[in-house]
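job 3f2a | input accepted
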Amino acid sequence: MVKRHDREVRSAAELLEALGRQALHEVAGAVPEEAPNPEQASVAVTGGFIQPAARVSHSDPSARDLLDDLWHDEADRLGILDANGEFLLLATYPGSLTRGWIRVRDSIGGRLPSRIAAASGSREFIAIALDRTALCAVSTEEYEDWIVTRSFEGH
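job 3f2a | predicted structure (155 res):
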């Protein structure tokens, strides 16, 4: 289990405020009804037989930059952010699975994992393309961060 820190947000309102300081803003408009159930998406990222697309050791001095770069490589390949920088986000905070997806727009476009970690206090999050064809997530394991991807095309 990942240890929680004092700077981690405790509610959706706190998360949205913190995301805003990181140039990630909630977008008006509904989350698509066909969006995966947040609990199922969480299991898809953390289940026992997951093979990560990339691993970043916590002991690597450039771990933060490497995680950002590798996540963006995978997210770009899968088309996670649309032309407007919008995607569905499930970040870690108490009640996040109940609150569910937040439709956000990224007005910067870079270093997304670092900015989400700065906002939420946790490196873990799931991002899904608005067209629901793929997800790209960061999962924190014992000594490393994993980038987990999944394509839903053809399903």
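job 3f2a | Residues 1-5 have pLDDT under 50 and may be disordered.
job 3f2a | closed
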